[in-house]
Fold this sequence. Notes:
Low-confidence stretches: none
Number of strands: 8
Strand content: 15-25%
Structural class: alpha/beta
Radius of gyration: 17 Å
Order of helices and strands: EEEHEHHEHEHHEHEH
Helix content: 25-40%
Largest sheet: 8 strands, mixed
Mean pLDDT: 96
Distance between the termini: 46 Å
Amino acid sequence: MGGDEDVLASYHQRTFSHDGKERAVYERGGGPAVIVMAEMPGITPRVVEFADRVVDLGCTAVLPHLFGDPGRPPTVPYTLQSMGPACVASEFAAFATGTTAKVTEWLRALARDAHERCGGPGVGAVGMCWTGGFALGMMVDDRLLAPVLSQPSLPIGLTKRQKADLHLSASDLARVKERTATGTCVLGLRFTGDKLVPDERFAALRRELGDGFVGVEIDSSPGNPHGIRRIAHSVLTEDLVDEPGHPTHDALLQVLEHLRSRLLDG
């Protein structure tokens, strides 16, 4: 079953190739580029809605097709169908600790290309779920000024070590720490009850990055005041309640302000 390309009808599709790997990329807007990396199972309608917000902000939304069927709504069978191949793909290193996923090299090249074409002081990157932590690895390049980690779920946390791992090599982590020490801010989002994003991972981000990490943790415990479901996961998409006063709405606005202040101000 293919995706619903209608939700991407206003986006220009092109291909981008680096180191022999070619992928489709969807783009819309004008101004500095923001790489929007879709969550599992792929570029869903709600991911496109978030990208539309980036465009409305005054930026160019750049959506690489990493897995799944572009435009297809999420279902449990479809998510499992997308997750299976991704789990064993070496470029994602879904279970590996102490290493940066190989796909990050391709994403860095995409960000460099987007910066050259779109201009501005640099680029932003928003990862979600499976791609949630990729923006950290992309920070090795000085062009990345506004990294956002929304529910960073890799490596899959089966062991204590995996739960606390940041999906970075030692050298890349050292470079990320250099950049946060000199003013680059990393914004992270998660629901408190989300088992796919363990407490240990945000604790590691705070320990390693200090004041360079701003963690937004939304209460999804039983009886929470906003009735957020226990298994809530997708802060900016499927579990977003776009109403003033709701914590997911506030988190969305914080992400947009993070992008605006670093890419459009000054």
